[in-house]
Amino acid sequence: MGGTRYLVVNADDFGLSAGVNRGVVEAHDRGIVTSASLRVRWPAAAAAVAAARDRSRLGLGLHVDLGEWAYSDGEWRAVYEVVPAGDPDAAAAEVAAQVAAFHRLVGRPPTHLDSHQHVHTREPARSVLVRWARDLGVPLRHCSPGVRYDGRFYGQTATGAPHPEGVEEGALLQALAELTAGATEVCCHPGYADDLPTAYRAERAAEVASLCSPRVRRTAADAGAVLGSFADLPRDLCGVTPP
Fold first, then answer.
1. How many folded domains does the chain comprise?
2. Is this prediction's pTM over 0.90?
């Protein structure tokens, strides 16, 4: 297929902890990560921003955090909720607060928007983030048709069961082999999570290893794609569809 292929390799959860920050930075410095999504509510957010300032090629967007859910006994249960899931006013106020926090920490708008556990794919968060993406003029994950989302590089199934092959080198190589014309976001979650009470611990370290693999780096360089952040994408690819 003709046409330029743009590739953004985006690391979610930047700022979650010191160990996650270390993994994201390593996957940028030694690997193919070009962008990160910042969780501004977490203790290591300021340290993440400081690390990003020393890395001009690392794009920085906002990872909106409205809650987290874990699969247990056949259903998804809340681990925590920042705001009530069905309250549009509370969601709007919290997203505004997180956008403002990003501005205070970073000193500029985010290059892109997304959300923890893709909560913005459902209302009321969807409408709120669509409005913000349009106001800021940045792409919103799943809602910008010009940017294809590739989330296959992940170490758990849809119900949280271990899926170690999902974060092996081969998963990344397959994603790179299937790049098409236009823009693609390959999502990842690198880190060292010994300092986190999370089930997604060994998987983060495995992601770092795969993202930094010499074979992956070589394949990315040979793929013929333009590797960069969301800020490097042509503006006509970054539009957002209505909610």
1. 1
2. yes
